């Protein structure tokens, strides 16, 4: 009888050890949009409301917009109220247009109730790091910036050092390649330096492995795996910026009078956004959404043909695999 009890105890301990030694699978679902450019679009309220309605159905663990959302002016307060109506956690990334109209970085951050323009948080066993690509490369710089300065890089290194969970990075400007500038040019000027920090970290840390980086900014539909890290560009909710040489009245003279920048864009008929699921089982699953251009396409207006692959009114449904081994 005593032998039987010892045998039963040994089996129980073995089963318990076996179960506890198995890797716990962590999964998270994120509602994501980028480059809404609410002041530019005459139907801005409809677009952001569509995203929020969709998130009520999808029920992600949190939502995030990847920058170029809206400046903090009284007339745009209703748009922020729509965003803030989401009952779960919600986050912002500071884009280069957040400081338009003389808005200071401090005011843009304060209005969004962010603790800083770059920060981190933990959710469902993942660590999320939000970067600010608007640092000045030189003190005298006054135009749009696309750089991560030494102070922020020092903070980033420390955040990676203390991390114990798998990591996802958010930024507005991209850290991977920019399809508009394929000749080794990047959205963030010191992207190579930032990527080296990521890759050095991953070589020595498998528990707190950097899985992927999401960005907006270029209004592309694009994803690439660089040395084991996925760099994914989320298309604009609203349009592709073309420039003054491609001017075209898309809606009406009345709309153009009040929203003077639309004629330099190729607007999407329906807003684009996505829900992303990330699992330590080794995959990133991204929902797709298709629209069409309002008026002539970029190619009808003579936009460079070689950009067709990534310039389109859609977010592609993707299934991307990764390994933390």
Written description of the protein model:
- By secondary structure, the protein is α/β, with parallel strands linked by helices.
- It has a single domain, classed as Metallo-dependent phosphatases (Purple Acid Phosphatase, chain A, domain 2, 4-Layer Sandwich).
- It has helices at 2-21, 44-58, 77-84, 105-111, 150-162, 191-204, 253-258, and strands at 27-33, 62-65, 90-92, 119-123, 126-130, 167-170, 210-215, 222-226, 229-233, 239-241, 265-267, 274-279, 283-286, 289-290, 314-315, 318-321.
- The strands form 4 sheets. The chain has a 6-stranded mixed beta sheet, covered by helices on one side. Strands 4-5-6-7-9-8 form a 6-stranded mixed beta sheet, with helices on one face.
- Strand 8 (222-226) and strand 9 form a beta hairpin.
- It is globular.
- The chain starts with a helix and ends with a strand.
Please give the CATH class.
Answer: Alpha Beta
In this structure, how is the largest beta sheet organized?
6 strands, mixed
Structural class of the secondary structure composition? alpha/beta
**E-strand count:** 16
Which fold name corresponds to the CATH topology?
A: Purple Acid Phosphatase, chain A, domain 2
Give the CA-based shape.
globular
Tell me roughly what share of residues is in helical segments: 25-40%
Q: List unreliable stretches of 5+ residues.
A: 1-21
SSE string = HEHEHEHEEHEHEEEEHEEEEEE
Mean pLDDT: 90
What is the level-2 CATH architecture name?
4-Layer Sandwich
Please give the alpha-carbon distance between the first and last residues: 45 Å
Placed side by side, the strands forming the largest sheet appear as 3-2-1-12-13-16
> What percent of residues are in strands?
15-25%
Q: How large, in whole angstroms, is the Cα Rg?
A: 22 Å
Q: How many domains would you count in the coordinates?
A: 1
CATH superfamily: Metallo-dependent phosphatases
Q: How many helices?
A: 7
